[in-house]
Amino acid sequence: MEDVILSLDPRARMERLVDGSKTAGQVVDGVTEAVIQSLSEHINLTRAHRRLQALARVLICATFLEDALRMVMSFRMQVTTIITIARAGYLPIPPKECWLVVVLSAVVQALGAGAVLLERRELAGCVSLICWCCVHPFLYAQMRNGEFVSETLSVIGGLCILLSHLKEMRAVRRELLPTGPLQLPGAPASDRLCQLGRVLLCSYFVFYFCAKMASIFAGEHRFHAALVELVLMMLLVYMCAAIVVGSRSRRVALGLAVVMCVSNFVFHPFWYFWAVGSAYVSLDNMKAVATRLPVDMSVLSGADGSTSALLAIADHERYFFFQRLSTVGALVLLAVYGPGRHSLDEPSAPAMPERHMAKGRD
């Protein structure tokens, strides 16, 4: 009889639910630890960690290297684009000097990405890339393009995480010097910078959530499809919250990185436009590009209508493909370097030298 009463008591049911969730969390943690232990016995985690660091840097620099190469390979078209944007009133630059903008953008991106990849003056390179990301939407009149701005903010978040790591490592080197300071602050600026990076990293996912919810409430999906989308969006909200507060953020970031990497090849196949030619130029693709370009597509290529549309679509998809790769790199950076001490995962992490030596530094 008492069991029946307890089963009807809302408080008892809630306590059982909480206990069950705790047990499930413990099981997941136990399985994860077992997998890590098994991997450590067969894989050199130090070497894998370093390779993952290198991969993350390559991915986050992908959009900058590709854009710099684009500036060089299609210099005349890029100058024409900047001139058209300037004449439309988006840029206070004389048309005769617009070529300087293209040259400057190529140099800044190439030098910044090169510094990060070659590990030479990394701080300056990382800061220059962050500054470029802040200017880029205004330079191409993309301020109202929510997808472009949100993904740019996510890339900035990844760069902030990388910059946080670089500043922390510089502090580590100074502390290890005989003449360096004996103690470092418990909550340095690098941890606050990493916290800012985690918040910015979720910008694209917030935009994606808002866009999906708007389409669901607009009745663009059938009931079952809308229900699945709603469940996935709730899962996305949980994952973003986990990244922001720093709770199991490494695993969440790595999972999101895998999902985004796979979806990138599905939704932005720029090579497909080159393979099939103008047969793939449809009205929907034309509208998708028109919403992101402030100028007429025929101006960009100087060719006939179908060719200019094909070039604009392929160029648009190629840029977003590499920008999505940089977002994946930002997530991998979070998985590699961690959320910092302003988080639930590492609130009382050890001092910086011990923490980085524990990550596998020889």
From TrEMBL:
Family (UniProt): Belongs to the SURF4 family.
Membrane topology: Multi-pass membrane protein
Pfam families: SURF4 (PF02077)
Main subcellular localisation: membrane
Assigned GO CC terms: membrane
Name by which UniProt lists this protein: Uncharacterized protein
Membrane-crossing segments per the record: 148-166, 199-217, 223-245, 252-274
InterPro entries membership: Surf4 (IPR002995)
Compartments it resides in: Membrane
Keywords from the UniProt entry: Membrane, Transmembrane, Transmembrane helix
Source domain of life: Eukaryota
